[in-house]
């Protein structure tokens, strides 16, 4: 990870805590994010509209309300989560999916490397 992307991540976190519009994940590498997604997320998540697997479709997830996919049986914790999926919210969730307020239904240990998270978020941002 470059110093610049660390700075961007800090900006994204700062921006979300000030409730200003979310920063973009443009500093992540969407191609690397796609490869990582196919290795680590695709078993549970489709990226096309209306296809739910073990997890909900992640099409157009950026800035979407949590638990918004119809016909997916979300956990109570996810349904109670009102914070939209901004870059910063996704970053926090993917760092530790089972450790924060979102609940434990996503049986995935998370992505400890900030560069991996920036890349996969950059990929998700392009799913529209
Ligand atoms: C073992 C299966 C599994 C894996 C692997 C997995 N997820 Fe999930 N994911 C889930 C489940 C199940 C939920 C629903 C969680 C809930 O309802 O609490 C979920 C929820 C989510 C949500 C919230 C969606 C919404 O509609 O609110 C996002 C974003 C997400 N996952 C991203 C990812 C990403 C990115 C990866 C890979 C880095 C990943 N997940 C890997 C199963 C998985």
TrEMBL record:
<dbReference type="InterPro" id="IPR002327">
    <property type="entry name" value="Cyt_c_1A/1B"/>
</dbReference>
<keyword id="KW-0479">Metal-binding</keyword>
<protein>
    <submittedName>
        <fullName>C-type cytochrome</fullName>
    </submittedName>
</protein>
<keyword id="KW-0813">Transport</keyword>
<keyword id="KW-0249">Electron transport</keyword>
<keyword id="KW-0349">Heme</keyword>
<dbReference type="InterPro" id="IPR036909">
    <property type="entry name" value="Cyt_c-like_dom_sf"/>
</dbReference>
<keyword id="KW-0732">Signal</keyword>
<feature type="domain" description="Cytochrome c">
    <location>
        <begin position="28"/>
        <end position="128"/>
    </location>
</feature>
<dbReference type="Pfam" id="PF00034">
    <property type="entry name" value="Cytochrom_C"/>
</dbReference>
<dbReference type="InterPro" id="IPR009056">
    <property type="entry name" value="Cyt_c-like_dom"/>
</dbReference>
<feature type="signal peptide">
    <location>
        <begin position="1"/>
        <end position="25"/>
    </location>
</feature>
<keyword id="KW-0408">Iron</keyword>
